[in-house]
Amino acid sequence: MKALRLCTDGVGNSKLEALELPFLVFGPTATDADRARMPKPEVAVAYESVRLVGRAAGGDETGDGTRRLLVVVSGEVGVSAGGMRASLGPGDVLFVDADPAGHELAIGDAARIVRIDVADSWVPEGVVPPPLDEPRRADGESLLKHMYVEDGQARFRDAEAMFTDGAPRPVTRVMFMCLSPDQFGDWHTEEATSLVVGLTGGFELEVGGDGGKTEVLRAGDVCLVQDHHGQGHISRTHGETRFIAVAVPEEHVWQIL
Fold first, then answer.
1. Do 86 and 152 have their domain in common?
2. pLDDT band at 58 (very low <50, low <70, confident <90, very high)
3. pTM exceeds 0.90, yes or no
4. Cα–Cα dist 175/108, whole Å
5. Could you list the residue range(s) of the whole structural domain that residue 75 is in?
6. What is the CATH number of the domain that holds 111?
7. What is the rounded end-to-end Cα distance, in angstroms, of the chain?
8. Is 152 left (phi over 0), alpha (psi -120 to 50) or beta?
9. In 119-220, at which residue ranges do the beta strands (DSSP E only) sit?
10. Which residues touch 138 (CB under 8 Å, ≥6 apart)?
């Protein structure tokens, strides 16, 4: 993944630089340095809203002066600032710091973006994720899933409809997660409803419904996890795995059907 910050240089012009993100690092491969860079608990609540932007469905990502994180789900996003240019794809993250002068964002017609507006107190700090070369799904083929409970068992269904509704939703917390390879979570439920967005590696989710199903979230894949009771689900990691979990109040969850 790439993680970039669009900000202002010393004379007021825009520039691009590496973006530090507040990853919570868990598992046996985590080092003392990893743990020392983990964010304080208050960082998880320094976010204001989440919006699912789908250009093909009439959405847009205009410069409105709001400090925001843009996570690419599918398609391509180009950014240029101060003679620097970058092309972002699924799983990449761009922090737009209040729309500095002299930059350009080019959002592809097929692009889908998870936009997270941050509070004034939010500062980019933590760790710059390594820019790994990983296989990505074909353009426009990111998984968009909903994990829900029926008859006491978690199930999956397609969730394309989420990106037809670009209205902002409030968030209760946002966590950037980094898990060691081969991490395993036995059957469990989740307290919160969370929008999970894959960044690197593979985050496997297994449910018991419909005879048992498994999905692996990779860069740019999205799953709305709404599994609060019943049997729960199993999780595994394929390689070092990074993802974002955006907790949304139950009364503001997207309509899937």
1. no
2. very low
3. yes
4. 27
5. 3-21+46-118
6. 2.60.120
7. 31
8. left
9. 144-150, 153-158, 169-170, 173-179, 184-188, 193-207, 213-217
10. none
